[in-house]
Amino acid sequence: MSGFNSIFAVASVPMAKLYYEEFKKQMAKDPTKKLRIATIFSYGANEEESDGILDEENSEDASALDSTFS
């Protein structure tokens, strides 16, 4: 296995630790299904817009990306 297969987000560090422990248990049961696990911690809570809807993160034209990565 190389790289990451998915991204998994949780609401808190304690919750991430619980999932990590569960993943370790499941990997111990079946050594053929090993996972690489990495964590990223946000400095603070994400700010929400007053209307509850987040703005688009990138409004630039990304159509050129298709030719870059093909």
TrEMBL record:
The protein, known as: Restriction endonuclease type I HsdR second RecA-like helicase domain-containing protein
Region feature Disordered, mapped onto this chain: 48-70
Coiled coil: none
Domain of life according to the entry: Bacteria
Signal peptide: none
Pfam (any one): T1R_D3-like
InterPro entries reported in the protein's UniProt record: HsdR_RecA-like_helicase_dom_2, P-loop_NTPase
Biased composition (Acidic residues): 48-60
Organism in which the protein naturally occurs: Lactobacillus iners
Domain Restriction endonuclease type I HsdR second RecA-like helicase: start-end pairs: 3-62
